[in-house]
Amino acid sequence: MLELAILGLLQEAPMHGYELRKELATKLGTLRAAISYGTLYPTLKRLQTSGLIGEAGTADGEIVPPLTSRRGRVVYKITAEGKERFAELLAQAGPETYDDAGFGVHFAFFARTDQATRLRILEGRRRRVEERREGLRDVIARASDRLDAYTLELQRHGLDACEREVRWLEELITNERSGRTPCSPADPATGDPRNTGSTSKDRP
Amino acid sequence: MLELAILGLLQEAPMHGYELRKELATKLGTLRAAISYGTLYPTLKRLQTSGLIGEAGTADGEIVPPLTSRRGRVVYKITAEGKERFAELLAQAGPETYDDAGFGVHFAFFARTDQATRLRILEGRRRRVEERREGLRDVIARASDRLDAYTLELQRHGLDACEREVRWLEELITNERSGRTPCSPADPATGDPRNTGSTSKDRP
DNA sequence: TCCTCGATGTATCGGCTCGATACATCGCAA
DNA sequence: TTGCGATGTATCGAGCCGATACATCGAGGA
C-alpha cells in the first residue's frame, strides 16, 4: 500500500525521503499520523532494486550502485516501469483495496485514474463497510445483554461511523455516476479542481 | 495491545484460541475485522512463556511443558501475575494508549478499571484526536490550492470524523465527571449495565 | 459400515510496518 | 569556534497480517 503512495507522489515530482514523508502526511492526512522511517527507507530500497524508481539524474531504469550514499540526500524519481506498476496498483481490485488503509490511498490518487475504476473502488469500499455495519448490528442486537455498557457504547460508536461512511460513499457514487467528477480523468494533474460537489459541510 | 485484550478476556473466563478470536471480534467490533491467527497463537505462546497465562487445569503460574498439544484444543486461563499485568496495562498512560487501536482496547475494558483512570484515558484520547484535527485544518487551509479535489475531500471527511469523535469523547467525559458511570468500578463483572447515559442515538 | 465434507481448531512462514535509535550534515547565532 | 537544532539517511527488533497447511470431529448419505 505504501508502494502505491510513494509511486503516486513521485509521479508528480522527484523527491527525497524526508520530503516524501512530509508530502505523504499532507496527502493521506487522516490515514496515518506520519509514515515511519523504518517503513519508508526499506520500501524505497525495495522499489529501487525492482527498478520502479531510480535516482534523479540517471536514465530511466538504470540502477546506479555505489553512488547512492554520496553525501546528503538522495533524490528519487519514478521510472517507466514504475509508472506502469502505479497504474496497475491503482486499478487493482483485491480485498486489500477496500480496507481502511488501502481505500484511503486509492482515494487520495483518484485524480489519476478513470471514472470506471473510481466507481468500482467506491462500490467495493461501500460493500466492505456495509458488511462491517451488519456485523456490528448483529453484535448489538444479539449480544447486548452479555456486554457491559462501555463495550456496547464502543459498538454503537463504530456503527454510527459505518453508517456515516456509507452515506458519504453513496453521495460520492451518485456524483460519479452523474458525471460530476471534480478532476480530469487524464494522466497529468490539471491543477484545476473547480467545484467538487463536495459532500462535507462547510466549517464556520 | 493484543496482550491486553487477551488478558482481559481470559479474566472473564478461560478460553481456547478459536473462542478467543470470536470473543475478540464481538468485544472489539469496529477496531479489527478479525484477529489473525498469525498474531493470536504467537501471542498466546509469548504470554504463556512469561507466565501470564497457563493452561486450564494447572495450578496458578505453573507451566506444563509437553501437555500442550495432546489432542484438540488448548484452554488457557489467566494467572495471578497475568491479572497484575492486566491491571498495569489497563491503567498505563503511554502514547500508544491513545492511538486508534490502543484506545479502543482500553475503552472496551473500561468496566474493569476505576473512574480516575477512565477520565485520564478519555482526556488523553481527546487531546490526540484534537491534534489530528488541527493538523487536518492546517492542511485544508494552507494546501488546498495545491491538492486536487479528491484529496481535499478525503481531508474533509477525516476532519469531520475527528470533530465527531471529539464531541463523543466530551459527552463521555461529562458523564464520567458527573458520576453517571454505567458500570461498577469494582473488579468482578456486575452484569447489570442499567442506563448508560449513552451518547448514541437509538436506532429504529 | 464406511466415506466424504464442512466446521472447528492449532500452528507456521514470509513480509510489511512500527517505534526507537544512531549518526552525519548544514545553517546560524552566541 | 563552538554548539545546537533542523534536516536527512539508515538499521534493528518486534508485532501483526494474510496465506497456508494440517489435524480432528460430527453429521449425513451410499
Automatic annotation (TrEMBL), chains A, B:
Pfam families reported for this sequence: PadR (PF03551)
Biased composition (Polar residues): 193-204
Coiled-coil ranges from the UniProt annotation: 119-146
Domain of life the protein comes from: Bacteria
Keyword Coiled coil (UniProt): yes
Positions of region (Disordered): 177-204
Record-annotated Transcription regulator PadR N-terminal domain positions: 6-88
Signal peptide: none
InterPro entries given in the database record: Metal_resp_DNA-bind_regulator, Tscrpt_reg_PadR_N, WH-like_DNA-bd_sf, WH_DNA-bd_sf
Keyword Transferase belongs to the record: no
Keywords linked to the UniProt accession: Coiled coil
Record-linked PANTHER family: CONSERVED PROTEIN (PTHR33169:SF26), PADR-FAMILY TRANSCRIPTIONAL REGULATOR (PTHR33169)
Record protein name field: PadR family transcriptional regulator
